[in-house]
Amino acid sequence: SKTASTPCGPDIIDYVYLKEEMAGNNTFEYLPVWPEELASTAFPNTQQLTISSLMFYGRLNPGGSSSATATLAIWTVEEGSYKPLNLITSAKVTINTALQNYTVALTSPITLSDTFAITLENETFLDTIDVVISDPNSTNTQELLSWYDYQGFWETMPEVNGIEAEFVLMPVVSYDLKADFTAN
After folding, report:
1. Averaged pLDDT for residues 92-100
2. Is the Cα dihedral 126, 74, 77, 10 positive or negative?
3. What does each C-alpha distance from 160 to 47, 71, 95 come to in angstroms?
4. 3-class SS letters over the chain
5. Which of 134, 131, 100 is closest to 26 using CA atoms?
6. Alpha-carbon distance 72 to 89, whole Å?
7. Rounded Cα gap, residues 165 and 22, in angstroms
8. Nearest Cα to 86, choosing from 44, 110, 119, 109?
């Protein structure tokens, strides 16, 4: 048997992009995450997943520092709302002003079989972190899986900024690959 590691879940970049393209939109925008605030995206899940790393697509706002630290974390979620509930594990990642995927490995892989959320916390004092979101101008294409911790209170994306969009935060999962065929 072989092992594969890949970004996974309903909100990987390709999925969000194709979803928006089908709706007639194919653009991404930034949403700034302010100091000491958190962005989250939930991943509805019913199978056993082993998560080894966490990723987000974005950058440190170019108008401030050249590098900073952020925390990526895995949370349990409130049933039905996908609101982050309890912290499971976290790891720190150093980011800079280049727009790219930032990845951080967990100290040890986490195995989950329920729905979970990934959060990004801005640990800077003054700078914003620009996190890529799916197109906020589309209609009826967002699953409302993202929440934002605004001044210590979790709010849905429409509540905090009036848009229905998802942060591009992702897990990297490992799973066994098994052949589904036989040969003579």
Report:
1. 91
2. positive
3. 32, 21, 25
4. CEEEEEECCCCCHHHHHHHHHHCCCCCCEEEEECCCCEEEEEECCCCCEEEEEEEEEEEECCCCCCEEEEEEEEEEECCCCCCEEEEEEEEEEEEECCCEEEEEEEEEEEEECCCEEEEEEECCCCCCEEEEECCCCCCCCCCCCEEEEECCEEEEHHHHHCCCCCECEEEEEEEEECCCCCCC
5. 134
6. 9
7. 15
8. 119
Q: What does DSSP say about strands 100-112 and 146-150: parallel, antiparallel, or unpaired?
A: unpaired
**% of the chain with per-residue pLDDT over 90:** 40
Return the residue matching tokens 């979803």. 19
CA dihedral 97, 99, 101, 106 (to 10 degrees): 20
| Residue 13 φ/ψ, nearest 5 degrees | -55, -45
Q: How far apart are alpha carbons 41 and 167 in whole angstroms? A: 6
Q: Which amino acid is at 70?
A: A
Q: Is the dihedral of CA 158, 100, 102, 174 positive or negative?
A: positive
> pLDDT digits over 115-145, tens only?
999 999 999 888 999 988 876 665 555 667 8
- Rg (C-alpha) for the chain, rounded Å, is 17
pLDDT in tens, 44-53: 888 888 999 9
